[in-house]
Amino acid sequence: MSAASAASASSAAEAAGHAVIFGLDPLWLSTGILIVSYAVLLSEKVNRTVVALLGGGLVIVTGVISQKQAFAGIDFNTIALLTGMMIIVAITRVSGVFEYVAIWSAKKVNADPIGILIVLSVVTAVFSAFLDNLTTVLLVVPIALLIVEKLRVSPYPFLYSQILASNVGGTATLIGDPPNILIGSATGLTFVQFLFELGPVVVVIMIIMVPIFWWLWGKELVATDERRDSIMRFREADSITDKRLLVKSLTVLALVIMGFIIGEHYHIRPGTTAMFGAAVLLLVTIIGEEAQGQAERLHEAFIEVEWSALFFFIGLFVIVAGVEHAGLLNILGDALMDFTGGDAALTSYATLWLSAVVSAAVDNIPFVATMIPLVESMEGAIGGAEALEPVWWSLALGACLGGNGSLIGAAANVMVSGLGERAGYPISFAKFLKVGVPFMLLTVAIAHVYMYLRHFM
Amino acid sequence: MDCKTVMAPIKVSLYADDAAGTAIDFMVEKHMGLVPVTERDGAFAGLISGDRLMEFMLPRTLTTMGGVKRGFKRASYLHETAGEMHERLDALRERPLGELVDRDVMVAHPDTPLIDALMMIKQKQYVVPVVDGDGKLVGAISFFSVLYALRQEYDRETAEKAKAKERDERRKAREETP
Q1: Residue A150 with chain B: CB contacts under 8 Å
Q2: CATH for B3-176 (3.30.450.40, 2.40.50.200, 3.10.20.740, 3.10.580.10)
Q3: Which of A6, A16, A264, B1 sits CB 3.0–4.6 Å from B114 for a disulfide?
């Protein structure tokens, strides 16, 4: 058989449809796979990447969708954006710049414990906005714990505040938090649109966050002068290990962020910008080295990529593609429209609070991945793409801020909890709820008021 | 060759309920970097090593976060004083050795072939404790004890061969004599 006839036979097989196993209804089957996958994810009995890949595999082998449709459902812009940023951060980190910023900030407040807690929260929020928040907590929490050890104060306020700040900061930009990356990628909303829509409310929340943290932990965090001196002796300049690398990596990082801002005008998606930036940074760091050295540098950068997170996304995209093709999300979208009567304001508020509550209870990434096609299905009923835009912002605000509602609400929370446990400070689920739920409710209420003032007043 | 022919006997015991200070003084005095520790009944408890003790001389966060991706690679920016380090050393000296030993180590038995003990040493465990069927420490094998025993064994084998050759030559000479 020639290549052409083989290809034509293969596409004929695709077109002929892929009979669903045992003649089952694809709607029920795909819904079942989605629910079971969610349940297993929630139980945390099996690694989440394995669950997503198994769920995705099941959607294909049971015939709900073909492999071609499954691959078409994978959002490679998201995958490329995450991979590119992970490589850039992995290389930049080696320069020691993140330690520099954390130590410099701690000394600026004269090593006052509550002052350090607040400046490190602001540092984390800002880093979370321009890197992803998972990476940010991985960079800042270890140095925060080192400072805590030196000050001999409780680590818990620092761990809690890092979680809260990372989710707040990550809300501000397209690249800040995985839900935003997913929404931006699916809708084509630009980096600048995210920044101007979500940035102002994040700034308001951060301004309110400072006195709240002071009130919550100010009295508890007291250190002797001797302990504070041990922090003031830190020399931030010594944390910079490679000045040339620092200049190269910060230049590329700045260019990539600029690329996010202006790239959209030239139809260059964030995934391309991030991957291209990663390739340029790899080039400028390996150039001039022997072949063996180049291979080692490349390996060092690639080993820091969170491959399991990327494959989690891939599996998830396929599961969601299954329910989308089977029509479940259209049905749910219509139900939401019936509930809100197609009113844009009511739909936005409902999406905001629903996203917040669900994101507090389950990981916000699978939730948003499922919600995206559901919201897309409401476009006609709500009156077009423009009317739908506030719903997208509500989804982003709800999912990102809702992540603060519990210890499993966002990937960064799980990461901080893991770091704390490793350092000998396990975080109690219930104790975090006492801080997380009120903070989440307050910030979502602020977002609600903001949505009203900005879009519906 | 097996481990019982190579192992060095344990002359001085460090016990799991000794204070770490005892082990530190012993290791400094004997210039030893890795020493087996036993319970009072002679059961093997684990190995105490110089690098394990050094780990406790560092700020705790550096070691607990050290293995985490993106954890600390270096910490020269801390600019710690000798007083701060000594404070941690003093605290370390008071701790029971049993809390500090590495229990997850490879052990050999007296009849374990020497080649297996050499494989353990190759895996960077420079002292291989030898325990009997009841888990009691009966000796230890290190690079030095292997070389020492090997030389002894080689000398013995060479001497035996020389003797055998001499015997053969004498026998041949007797047979050739009419």
Answers
A1: 59
A2: 3.10.580.10
A3: B1
